[in-house]
Amino acid sequence: MNVKYLLLAGLALPAAPALAQDAAAPASQQIVVTGRGLDQTPATPAYDVQEIGRDEIVSTSSGRLEDALENVAGFQQFRRSDSRSSNPSAQGVTLRALGGNATSRALVLLDGVPMTDPFFGYVPLSAIAPERLENIRVTRGGGSGPFGSGALAGVIELDSADAPDLGLFTGSAMLDQRGETELSGSLAPEIGEGYAVVSGRWDRGKGFFTTPEAQRVPATVRAKYDSWSTSARLVEPIGDDLTLQLRGLAFEDNRVLRFAGATTGMEGQDVSARLVGRGAWQFDAVAYAQWRNFNNRVISSSTYKLSLDQKDTPASGQGGKIEIRPPVGGGHTLRLGGDYRRMKGDLKEDAYNASTGVLTAHRFGGGVNADVGLFAEDDWELGPVTLTGGVRGDRYAIRDGYYRSVNGAGITTIDKTFANRSDWEFTWRGGGVFHASDALQLRAAAYTSLRLPTLNELYRPFVVFPVTTQANENLKPERLVGYEAGVDWQVADGVKLTATAFDNKVKDAITNVTIATNTRQRRNIDAIRARGLEFGAQATFGQLSLDGSLAYTHARQHSPGTDLDGFIPSQTPAWAESATVTYRPAERMLFSATVRHVGKQYEDDQQTDVLPGATTVDLFAQVPIVDRLSFVARAENLFDAEVITRNQGGSMDLGAPRTLWAGLRYGF
After folding, report:
1. What is the pLDDT of residue 32?
2. Does residue 6 carry a pLDDT above 50?
3. In whole angstroms, what is the distance from residue 464 CA to residue 443 CA?
């Protein structure tokens, strides 16, 4: 039996007795236990925070998490492809146009647990089903503070939906015009005084041609995909003010990219435990363990034969966090705590002569990164003014690094071990918000933050033909210094406008630097500086609502004495906009249209390969049929705009074409 079905059955069986019992429970019984962490602190509005609610999360045209996140202008992946047609290792996410690197510069948390891959630093977006979420909170900038290291460009916090949000059963089945399918379902029975949530999702399809028609060859194939994920949560009160939360996640994702045989995939398993105390001494304690793997087969674009088999990249991550809020009084909310994260990974790959098919090398590499952080932060409420300030110290270690290459005859040609290194880094953040009136608040903040180089950046070279990118074991951590100021204005009932001006500078920014023809190396450059403006608008007029987000960013590389100085970082657009109009004429009935624009950006650090700007239009409709059953229709890229996602010397990849979906939902 396929492993996906075994996992689904295994997750569902423990909930079956409770499901049978609770199906007959009186409708008046309601679950009031929450599966979230502690509430946001009073000074949260001092930073540039945007929230995405459940209705918006589950009504995207693609049904994928990255689609919902793109409603926040300034959010971007390294490439414009979504998680059906991109290489998983390119799914790094960032904010504020601080790109130029496939590694995540934003910290992504699911129920308090970091989701970035321990080896590569990408986010397994296809494993996080939007229908499992209740809320997304995006903090652009803001520094690390109590969130943990890695929040260089900001933090994306994902909160799972509780049982009352989901109902006892939810499910959906969708089909598009290419015959691709999307199936998902969840059970959320009461267990004791708490509840469990068991869910599964399976997406598969033959995909579309990412290669432009004029560049296709007999070896060109569609971007086929087949992914599944299962998740289980248990939330149980174990005292008057104490809640235990247990979570497990398992996923697998397999894709085909561009050529026959060019397969890529990832898999993973997560377990975590969280204890939240809401008494006089509030606390939030999280512990987790993660296991990941990645594989990738590179096909030569000239001979269409296997040139590289990244057959095994096992990685693991362990860590935890504790935050305590003592009842100090006097208008203060004090946060004290610490966190730990250890990341270990190894690569095992085989290189081939793409002309002859002969094995040329076995390559091995990897190492361990670890970080221990201590933080303290205080919010002080002084009438209409709330001030906040915090400090953080990180003790990081980069150790056990190695790289080895053995030729086809079994002779070791490269055998390197790299010196261990460790150090302390101190960061801080502070800000304030002034409630000028019931309708107007002014805010300002300054911050610093830290990101360690990933094991991938330190030890793994890679090839995207014809360009080879070398690793660099000497990379230093990136450090950001940022400032911002903004205004939130409640213009009228149901109408809110926001504006933020920011100046963020990443010192020792890690980017891919061209050092010879078709050869690049990951290096620290002096800095990437991004200055810009962010605007938001939310308006509700009865059954009609509008949500809009716009970001303009002037980003430049600073690298005196090199030809990079003054250039725009790769994969970085100046303009990004998103606007959604939603009409809700009745309960469970919804119609929405989303327009997005991403401006011109460059593929490379030399500003030679252009990715033109692109504008897309998406539609969503949900119409109730009976009880909680609804008909759903979705349209991705309605006008079939050409979205170029990769351009290397004229060799291009395209994003998703017009895709039309129809299906049924129950319980949404």
Report:
1. 58
2. no
3. 44
The CA distance from 227 to 265, in Å, is 9
Distance separating alpha carbons of residues 66 and 457, to the nearest angstrom: 24
For residue 520, count CB atoms less than 10 angstroms from its CB and return exposed for 0-12, middle for 13-18, buried for 19 or more: buried
Instruction: Tell me the pLDDT tens digit for each residue of 181-214.
Output: 999 999 999 998 999 999 999 999 999 999 999 9
Cα–Cα distance between 666 and 668 in angstroms, integer? 6
Measured from the Cβ of residue 2, the count of other Cβ atoms closer than 10 Å reads: 8
Which secondary structure element, helix H or strand E, spans residue 133, and what is its range? strand 133-140
Q: What are 37's two structure tokens?
A: 């962490």
Class of domain 3-26+40-306+317-335+430-448+477-666: mainly beta
In the DSSP assignment, the letter for residue 6 is H
Q: Which uninterrupted H or E stretch holds 69? A: helix 65-69
Tokens representing 54 are: 């459940």
Residues 390-436: tens digit of each pLDDT = 999 999 999 999 999 999 999 999 999 999 999 999 999 999 999 99
What pTM did the predictor assign? 0.93
Pairing of strands 651-654, 644-648: antiparallel
Contact 237, 243 (CB under 8 A): yes
| DSSP sequence for 358-407 | -EEEEEEEEEEEEEEEEEEEEEEEETTEEEEEEEEEEEEEEEEEEEEEEE
Q: Quick check: 326 and 281 in contact, CB under 8 A?
A: yes
Alpha-carbon gap, residue 31 to 22, rounded angstroms: 12
Model confidence at 464, in pLDDT bands (50, 70, 90)? low
640: left (phi > 0), else alpha (psi -120 to 50), else beta?
left
- For the chain, give the percent of residues with pLDDT over 70: 95
Rounded Cα distance, 138 and 74, in Å: 11
- Which amino acid is present at 170? T
Calculate what percentage of the chain has a pLDDT beyond 90.
Answer: 83
SS3 at position 132: helix
